[in-house]
Amino acid sequence: MSHKMTPSDAARIQSSQALGGKDMSSGGFAARAQSSAAHNTNANTSGGGQSRGGGGGSNSGGKSGGGGRK
Q1: Within a 13 Å sphere around the CA of 59, how many CA atoms are in the beta-carbon half?
Q2: Where are the domains of the chain?
Q3: Within 10 Å of residue 6's Cβ, how many Cβ atoms?
Q4: What is the rounded distance in angstroms from the CA atom of residue 35 to the CA atom of residue 44?
Q5: Alpha carbons 10 and 6: distance in angstroms, whole number
Q6: Backbone angles phi, psi at 33, to 5 degrees
Q7: Of 36, 45, 46, residue with least CA distance to 9
């Protein structure tokens, strides 16, 4: 039987790794567990398939904001 990593599993792993003084780097086991949980959660919420393609949106660069204060 296969078990997919859940966000709850990842949180438990991260907690035990941190409390035990283990590797908490981006390449450590806890980070990989979190990534796997996110992947599984996203796969479940997107109807089971991977979506490809752009999501529209615009990136105008720079700052945008209202008028400044005087």
Answers
A1: 3
A2: 7-45
A3: 15
A4: 14
A5: 6
A6: -65, -45
A7: 36
* Alpha-helix residue ranges (DSSP H) falling in 1-70: 7-19, 29-45
What does pTM read for this prediction?
0.57
Q: Which tokens hold the place of 9? A: 């599993």
DSSP state of 20: T
What are the tokens at 48?
């089971």
Residue-wise pLDDT for 9-39, tens only, equals 999 999 999 999 999 999 999 999 999 999 9
The letter for the amino acid at 42 is N
Interatomic CA distance for residues 61 and 33, integer angstroms: 34
- Asked if residues 13 and 29 have their Cβ atoms less than 8 Å apart, the reply is yes
Q: Which of 3, 4, 1 is nearest to 37 (CA)?
A: 4
